[in-house]
Structures are given as C-alpha cells and as structure tokens.
Amino acid sequence: MTRIDATAQRGFDRVLGAENVISDRARLRSYECDGLTGYRVIPALVLLPRTAEQVAAAVRVCAEHGITFVARGAGTGLSGGALPVADGVVISLQRLRRVLAVDPVDRLAVLEPGVTNLEITKAAAPYGLYYAPDPSSQQVCTIGGNVAENSGGAHCLKYGFTTNHVLALEVVLADGSVVTLGGDTTEQLGPDLRGVFLGSEGTLGIATKVTVRLLRTPEAVRTLLADFPSVAAAGEVVSDIIAGGIVPAAVEMMDTLAIEAAEAAVCAGYTLGVPAALVVELDGPAQECHNQFERVKAICEAHGCTRLHIAADAEERAAIWRGRKSAFAAVGRISPDYFVQDGVVPRTRLAEVLSRIGEMGEAVGLRVANVFHAGDGNLHPLVLYDASAGETARAEKLSAEIAELCVELGGSLSGEHGIGTDKACSMPKMFSEADLELMGRVRDAFDPGGLCNPGKLLPTPRLCGERPGKYRPHPLEAAGVIERL
Amino acid sequence: MSTPSAFDPHRPPSRELLDDCVHCGFCLPTCPTYQLWGEEMDSPRGRIYLMSLAEQGEIGLDGALHEHIDACLGCMACVSSCPSGVRYDRLLEAVRPQLERNVPRSRSDRLFRNVIFALFPHRRRLQVAAAIGVVYQKLRGLPAMARLTERVAGMGATFARLAALEALLPPVRLRDAFAALPERIPAAGTARRRVALLTGCVQDVFFHQVNVATARVLAAEGCEVLVPRHQHCCGALELHSGRELSAIARAQRTIATFEKLPVDAIITNVAGCGSSMKQYGELLADDPAWATRAAAFSATVRDVHEVLAELEPVAPRHPVRARVVYHDACHLGHAQGVRAQPRAVLRTVPGLRLVEAAETELCCGSAGIYNLVAPDAAAELGARKAANIRAAHPDLVVTANPGCLLQLRRHLAATSGDAFVPLMHPVQVLDASIRGTAPAMD
C-alpha cells in the first residue's frame, strides 16, 4: 500500500462519493488477494462504483494522474488476475450487478459485469433459456471475470467457452473513454475486437456491460457416474466416446483423492477408494440423447466399469455435479494447503500425463489430486502441501513443472483459469519472443500508458526476476553473482 | 518475528479453524450483507480474513474488525455454502465475546443493547412490556400518538432503533401473554415418546398459541409432554451477541432444569433456542463441572419438526387447502441443518401445497437482535424477502422462529395494496389440520 496523490484521491471522492472509496489499511487488506492467496499486494485504494458512468469517471481520474488500476469481480480467480498493484487502485465491480435485459425472442441477455454466471441462467430460466458456459464457481464468479478469463467449465466441450457466447461488450478503455466492441448479432464486419478483448485478463480495459447469447434449455439431459479400475481405462472411455461421434455435454474425471475430498464436503454419492470416476452428461433432443446414452453405457461397460450410477432425477443429477463442482475447495478438507493447476494436454495423452504427474509427486513426496475436464484434456491437478511443514517451495516447483509438462506434451499452460500473475513467467515456455512482443503491441494499442492491470498475463522483467510473496532468493543471488545487503 | 495476537487469551478463534478457509468465495452469494453492500469486508471470506489478521496481530480488534463483525447477521448461510467445511459459526462465537470484552461501545449503543438484554430474556418483564404494548397499540390509533411516533422516528439513529422496535410489535392478546401450559400433558392413546418442552421467552409471551399448538400436536402424535414450570431463557440472544458470561449462566440453569427429567428428547419450537441449546456442549466444553452434562443435554435437544418427522403420523388429518410457503429460519436451516423435516411434516397435511420462494437461503433480516440494532440493513433484507415470498403467491406463510414471524409480518404488511398474507408457525397448521378447525391467525 502506497499513498496516493491527494488531488487524485479528491478526484475519486468527487466522482464516487468518499464513502465509496476505501482507504483504511485494514479494509484494504481484505482486497489484497483473490482466489490465489499465495500472492498478496495491498492496493492504495479500493473504489466501489455503482454505475458504468462512475467506472468511466474513476478511470478518467486514473488516466489523468497516471494511476494503475485493477478491475475485480468476485475475486475467485485462480491465477492472481485480480492481484492489486501497490501504488494503484482496485476497481470493484460488485455493485454493478443488475440484469439489464433478457430478450427471449432474440435470445440474449444484457448484464452488468458483477452479475454472477448462475444469475444469468436464473434470469433466463422462466423463458426456457439458459447461459451455457458454467465454470465450477458459477454460483459466485461474475460475467465480467468470465469475460476477462474467457472462462470455460464442464460443458464447454460441447458448447464452447465464454467467447462463443458473448456478442457485445461495453468497455471502458484506459483513458476513460467508453466503446462498444461487437454487436447484437453474430455476423459482424471488420476485425473482431470483441474477440481480442475476451480473455485479455483485464489488461485492455474494464467491461461494464456484457451482451450474451442464451440457448434453449435442452429437451433432455442424462447424467451418469461411472467408476473404473484405472485412470487409463477411464481415459480410453473418453477417447472411445468421442471417436464414436458422440459429443457429450460434459465428460469429467476425478481420481481417488479428489473423490475423497468431494465426498467429505457434500456426500454426493461417489465411491470412495476407486482409482477413477467419470461423470458423463449428454443433452439434446430426447430420442438422440437416449440413443447416445445407451452407447455411452456400453462403452463404459466394455472398459471394465465397476459401478454405473445413472441419475434418476434432477436432484440426483445436481448431487453428482455438486460433488464435482465443489472439488477444488473441498480439497481444503484433506490438506491444509494446495495449488490448483490448469494445464491442457491432447486428449490421447491423458493417461500418460497422469502417470507422469503421479511419478513426479511421489519423487518429491507430495500428493496430487486430479479433477479435470477429460473431454477436452483440461487438467486440474491439485498439489497438496502443508505450508506450516515448510512444503510450500517444493509444492510450487512441482506445480510449475506440471504446467510445463503439459506444454512439453503438446498442450497448453492454461485451459481456463488464465495466466494472471501466477503463470506470466512461464509464458516464454509456450511463446517465442516475437509472439510475446506482438501481444505487447496489441496491449499498447489499447493501453499505451500501461495502466490496466499491469504485471498480468505478459511476463515483465520485474515480475519474473523477483516474484512477490514470500522472500525467495533471486536466481542471481542463488548463483552467488549478487548479494542482498 | 511474529506479533502477538490482538485477541485476549480466553478462547480466541483458533488458527486451525481460520486456516480452513481457502478464500474460494463460494460463501459470497448467500451472505446477506455482501448482497446488500458488495464489499469484501462484509462477506464471510472478508470477515475471516480480518479475524486472521487480528490473530496475527496485524490489525487491532477495534475499527474494521469490530464494525464488520457487528454488521454480520450470524445467519450461518456461509456455513451451509462452504465446500471446505469452514466453521464460521465457531469463529464468530469465539470473536464476538472478545469484542464485547475488549472494545468499548458508544454510550447510546451500550444503553440500547442493555435495554434489549434487560428485557427479552425475561419472561416476566416481557409480560409487563406486552401489557404496556396492548395499551400502546390501542392508543396508536389516535392521531396525536401517531404524530408523536413520527416525530420520534425522525430523530436520528437511536430513535430509528426505537422506531424499529415499535414497528415489530405484534398485536398481543393479554390473556395469552400471561397464560401458561400445564406441567404435564398426557399422550393421546399409547405414549410413543416422553418429551420436555422449552416454552421460550418471546415465544411464550407473544406467541403463546404456538406453544399451545405444539403441545397439542405432540400429544396427538403420541408424546407425553412435560413443561417444567420454572424454566428460564435459554440464552440464545446473548450467546449469539457475544455476551458470553450471561449466556453461560443461562445455559447452566437450563441444563439443571431439564436434565433431571426422564425424557427421550428436549423439544423447542424456536429455531434460535434450538441452535443455542444444541451448542451448549461446545459452550461449556472447557468447564470440567459442566462439560459432560452440557454435552449430554445438547445431544437430547431436538427441534419439534425433527421429532414429528421421525414419528409415523397417527392422528388423522383434515385437509387444509392452501398454497403454503415455508420460510427457512436461519438458525433452523443453516445452523441446525433442519430443512427437510418441516417440509415433510407439512406435506402430511392433505390439500396443502408447498411452494418454494426464491432465495430461500437468504436471511430475512431478523437475526436475533439484528433488526433492532441495525434497522436499515434489516429493513432492506426484510423487504427483499417479502417480495420473494409474495412472488410465490402463497395463501399462507409459515416459519419456525418468532423473530422471523415478527420481521415477515412487518414487511409483508408494508406493501400497501397487496393482499393480506397470514403467517404462522408450521405446528399451528398441523394443529388445525388434526383438530379440523380453520388455522387460527395471530
């Protein structure tokens, strides 16, 4: 936390009202981290605007005084994307949470950025419509954050990511001007600036209004939970389902440890002790859904499925998903601390990457729980550790190695949690210098002063030389080249 | 180098419990104050963060921590929604006494709270207050009195609190306020259970008919009901407000009164009382003279719906043809996990159609003494709850806590032009169904 220029502070007080500007140190500290608590920075101020106009006015004050700003939704991000900047402000969008319109004819909804993902579906449900992307934190994460991270979720295998469902964005740019990217129809001319903004992790501006597509609630949904004697067997089931021309709404896999955690949290009816469990969900027209479901059951049985539980009703289906969606946080029940990874591998290499992860964990004496979107190869290994036993550094190293292993196997560093602060320094493992430079130029075009969420997504020498958080020796220090006085 | 904790050594929040929070934020949407204000410090996650900073000695107890813990309704919706099993209930009950002991309140706040705690836990004083209330309610119709009330309400925060108290007052029947149940009510037919009934303070003075109905329904379902004459307040309001010493004294007295009775269960029809009595074990765990007795007592405490849901219905029911919204009292749903049983019990009534209102997990704003000490926030929540309930178009609203009944009555009545929605306790509906009479309105 650094003090901010007095005229700037008066500017914020003027546009928002002093009661909507947090400057008290204890209160500021409750904003010092998001869902990834390993990184903490106390911001200079937290701003609580109520309207898009106030957001723009606050950003204009920032631009005028060269103050950096970080937009924050529900603070559930797992890559430190909403980590504050010490001499900057946090702009919280938690008071912009009105559903502005639901249009059942054109099948779209217009939302303020603080509306939660699940609220969109709740608002659309009376019209037989829903919003498809469903991150596991959907009850709390906001559409603004979903836009920033281009969030996915269990059902993005069939329905795509946030970018496939956002039609238009009203955005406050770094100079405080307000622009609209995209439009209310899917066919749009010119370069897709809406697409550029999606997944830019708050580095290009702040979305203040989001227009999303709504889909018709499927006529039928069938969900099964199947246990397998090995991760490899479950992996083969996934490959066979896709190879058979079936596009399930979701295919999720959990391993023994993840099941143990989820059961401890919500008693969803998973079998304790099985090496792997698959959740397969099909949706669509009733007849097609029924036929494909029979084929999925047959594939499961062909691969030695030890228990097949078919959700009998909406309640049982909800229980299965509750187990899956609470898994991350539930790991808190079986381990004092954990890191969540978010790597992606080609689907065919699932079994291989899992056995490698198992070996890497064993080698350093740490447990790794696995929860993942098996259908699209998006892994979420959870590295379990105990900070009080001094395991943090080992766990962080293992976690980073797992992400980099994914790149080595032809995949990606991140599926849906974003790069944020956490993986910015791993970007060069995946992209060449020229790639990164080009990304930097796009960023500069939107935000030449570098005021929007600096230090996220793209690696910077300051960030990657000395990482915030606990002290650890600089690489040059470790090599004996420099010393700390 | 670590700084000493800001908490005093008497039962501070444990580091272990604080560390259970992984900062995922799943608690935010069900937290009433977060819904109102959208500020991190007024969410369970933010409050735990502040507790944790205080435990590490990085912030003091006064200021931010005190204000944001005071703003918490203690509804425990966060405990229900937490995937990591964080015991916010235990954290809050550790922190509130610390703040009461160590952070001085302003003079007017202290006075107002003292008035509340000098009144509500005392049945006799409440009876007197009810008697004054009856006179007051008769006078309220006079224009001069109405003008006085308006003037008082316009005089700042303290008077806003008094106005809140006034607006909550239910119409009282004097005969009820002073009535008492017999000490033993025999079971109809063969006794299947023997139970003891806590009659409560506010419940017995303002909602005596609920106790009458409870005893009748239990008897009709084969329970012999014992009603100890010299029972006192269970201490729920004090326990939930951090007044630890008086809460402990009341707990001990209640245990001593009930433990000698040869019963299968100690029953309450009040959500707040049930949740506090089930906590006696934890409250007195450190006291060697009481720990075992308290644990044994808590193990026998049951909400009336838990017992009724267990017993196969024997008393014939008459139809009650109505659309009914059951409102989950936080201290029953979130604190005790009793959600299915009241609904199951209501479903035994033929003709009754249960409908769910939106946002069932969200507190109505009553929250013990909350609607008295924080009338503005409570009123906003009350209006929101009333709108959700109205949208479900009920003929009747039922809930198992006098605080919720008072709060809902006020806010369901507040919207003029809307139809009157009767409110009662679920056992009153059951009682009407068993007796074949129209449900008696309060």
Entry summary:
The complex is a heterodimer of chains A (485) and B (442). By secondary structure, chain A is of the alpha+beta class.
Written overview of the protein:
The complex is a heterodimer of chains A (485) and B (442). Chain A has helices at residues 6-16, 25-29, 52-65, 117-124, 143-149, 156-159, 193-197, 231-243, 256-266, 286-302, 314-325, 327-330, 350-364, 392-408, 427-430, 433-446, 461-465, 475-478, and strands spanning 21-22, 45-47, 69-72, 89-92, 99-103, 108-111, 129-130, 166-172, 178-182, 206-213, 215-216, 220-228, 250-255, 276-284, 307-310, 337-340, 367-373, 378-385. The radius of gyration of chain A is 23 Å and the shape is globular. A 7-stranded antiparallel sheet of chain A has the order 15-12-14-13-17-18-16, with helices on both faces. The longest helix of chain A is centred in the middle third of the chain and has 17 residues, at 286-302. Mean pLDDT of chain A is 91; it is low at 466-472. In chain A, strand 5 (99-103) and strand 6 (108-111) form a beta hairpin. Chain A contains 18 helices and 18 strands. In chain A, helix 8 (231-243) packs antiparallel against helix 13 (350-364). By secondary structure, chain B is of the alpha/beta class. In chain B, 53% of the residues lie in helices and 8% in strands. In chain B, the strands form 2 sheets. Chain B has a 5-stranded mixed sheet. In chain B, strands 7-6-8-9 form a 4-stranded parallel sheet, sandwiched between helices. The longest helix of chain B has 18 residues, at 123-140. Chain B is globular and about 65 Å long. The relative contact order of chain B is 0.11. The A-B interface holds A 22, 24-27, 29-31, 33-35, 37, 46, 48, 74-76, 92, 94-95, 97, 114, 116, 118, 137, 139-141, 264-266, 326, 328-333, 336, 338 and B 19-26, 28-29, 34, 38-41, 46, 49-50, 53, 58-59, 63-65, 81-86.
